[in-house]
Write a structure and sequence with these properties.
The chain is an alpha+beta fold. About 25% of the residues lie in helices and about 30% in strands. The radius of gyration is 13 Å and the shape is globular.
């Protein structure tokens, strides 16, 4: 996926928010997108342990890199202590989200 610069991104897409449902699998050898489940939930393995917010921080770092947005544009709105999370991503298009699996 080609990454867009911040100014180019803002000129091409309106400022919008995307909400993702993500099932996190901690303690993986590396952080990767496994795919999507039948209900549309993204399944992501993270290399961090689920202690002291480490897995959440790794998820945010990974999504930031994959989607080309700043880390502070990503927040976990529910499920901070659960494997099933609801994540808000600002400044991101639906098309960008669909590219997560590639």
């Amino acid at each position: 996926m080609a990454k867009l610069g911040a100014l180019q991104r803002l000129s091409q897409y309106p400022m919008i928010e995307q909400f993702l449902t993500i099932k996190v699998i901690p303690n993986a050898p590396k952080t990767i997108v496994v795919g999507r489940m039948d209900d549309g939930t993204w399944k992501i393995k993270v290399k961090a342990v689920p202690q002291k917010e480490k897995a959440n921080k790794e998820l945010i770092r990974f999504l930031s890199k994959k989607l080309g947005v700043a880390k502070n544009d990503i927040s976990i709105t529910s499920g901070e202590t659960s494997r099933l999370k609801r994540v808000r991503v600002s400044n991101c298009s639906a098309e960008d989200v669909q590219l997560l699996g590639e």
